Amino acid sequence: MKRRRIRKRHQHQFFLCQKTYRRALIDLIEADPMRMRALRCVQSLNLPQCYIAAGFVRNLVWDAMHKYPPSALNDIDVIYYDPSDTSREREQYLQGLLQKTMPEITWQVRNQARMHEKHHDPAYAGTLDAMRFWPEKETAIAVRLDMNQRCEIIAAFGVQSLFELKLSHNPARPWAVFQQRIEEKQWLTHWPKLTVTTQCSVAAKPIDEE
Predict the structure, then answer these.
(1) Is there a contact between 78 and 51 (Cβ–Cβ < 8 Å)?
(2) What residues contact 171, with CB distance under 8 A and at least 6 apart?
(3) What number of CA atoms fall less than 13 Å from residue 86's CA on the CB side?
(4) Are residues 84 and 63 in contact, defined by beta-carbon separation less than 8 angstroms?
(5) Which terminus of the chain has a smaller tally of CB atoms within 10 A, N or C?
(6) pLDDT tens digits along 142-164
């Protein structure tokens, strides 16, 4: 009984911590005019389970924790989930709409309802489920605007490790893929306080649900 109470207390503290980090993340995003403009553009597409993910969120936090100004938004990854139309033509059309709205940005739009085929995974149940298979856990965080124009965050593995400057391998993907991305993107050079972490267990289930 005592162990159960301790476990519940630790779980409560964990979720309080996640809420605090999530609030800090939202504050960072909402203070960035360019990011808020991009979120409004994506919201106007009215796509199902649609978010901006990856470096849009990740790099902003790493910059803040290194006391850097926000890195330039050279490209933006938009993800959504629509099994009714998984054609690449649809994605390209959506990219074109965003490109016209914000031509200074390189947009990439990907329907997660088809991405399992590329990676030879079981079919994803939704956007959040697809993020559970991304190579780095800190990349698997996404944001969109809700109906009140406030930021709404989803994260396949939580947001705490992002603020702790961890770069965590997701065992759902090969270590070699993770390592190659670190080298190609030069994250450790640009953000030297990052710490690479590994986990030998199977990939965790998402802690968030839409």
Answers:
(1) yes
(2) 199, 200, 201, 202, 203
(3) 11
(4) no
(5) N
(6) 999 999 999 999 999 999 999 99
